[in-house]
Amino acid sequence: MTRPARRSALVALALALGSCVREPPDPEHALADAIELARDDAEDFLGDERELHVTAIEDPSGHALEHARHALDRAAQRHGVAHVVVYGGSHTAADLYTGVLRRSLQAGFGDLGHGWVAPVPPFENYWQQGVRIAPSEGFAAVEPTTKHMEIDAYGLAGMAFDASGPALAEIETDGSRCSRIEVFHLAQPGGGTLRVHVDGVPFEVSTAADSPRAASVTIATRDGSHHVAIEALGDGPVRLFGVALGREGSGVVVDQLGLAGAKARHQLLWSEEIWAPLLAARAPDLLVVSYGNNETDDHHLTNDEHVAHFERMLARLRERAPEASCLVLSPADRLLPDAEGRLVTPPLLELLRVEQRRIAFERGCAFFDVMGWQGGPGSMARLRRTDPPLARDDQIHFTELGYRRLGAALTTALLDELAREQTAPATSP
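^ that's the sequence the OP posted. Answer follows.
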């Protein structure tokens, strides 16, 4: 068997076995071998690199990803968890580039399940790789909007789901596995009862408490596919935050926390008393943030205000997860009509691309230039004309293939940087 064929066979075996029945690794080469397996899986999505630009992770400090590398090393040694948390707007919410990141890292380091998922579709065509989310009954989504801009208990992902009467939400694994189901909710005065059904077996949870706080219930079950129904009984108000589908053992979990229309300033409206404990409970080893494209819709704000919002958002994340590694993704290209009706990249996007790089480095984060990977300002028009197209006609979003290519480019760049850090001389922060 040729070396590429052997690597492909090993990837297929790793994906099939997950974190359950893997042979003990060679301690000396465990990280390098896991990186090779993960990279081999991601390369399946790269396609024709002539259409795009090979882009590396930028890290002047040389140690922005050090904590994540150590977590992945432990996962490769089969005695640790590497937890990745990704925040962003609709590019992230599609779970396409994050889906490649999740699949490839789990192929190399072990599969600890899908991670976080909204149990109620927060927007039309909401989709998560490996999970089916049914239309809900009785739950209403609550998120920062132009009509709702006060600080509120939005939970981990910046969106909550309220029920004042009987309500039902259902999710089901679809090609993924789990053995631990965590339901996150708001405990509050007068809170009603939740009944969580796992494969038809009910578990009752009271959400009543003396004062508002983040809470959760964990249900252990067999490792495999499961159907989860979350029922509000209607005996009091209920606010759901989300569900985490996990597995026991070692490996990687990737929480995709993107929301369509999300902006960096929206995070500043999430009540820290509720959000911070949930983030701490997820214990991220790598925080990834991707904001900027939706900011071009906020014409009432100045450029300086947009930059300040991003800086405050990233500072708050770093303060609440100080040990985690951090990676900032630049805004992607977007085309909007100028004063003469020509489709151009808004100057704000080019400014945010520069300023987010600066802020990332000042906050000890690494940086990945998505717009540079595309080909720079104006490149969205060219990606619409590739065969097959990599960008949609709306001038802002990629096609599914485009997002998969982005996921492969990001994943391989991340793995290359981790491999470089592994062999680089030790430096003092």
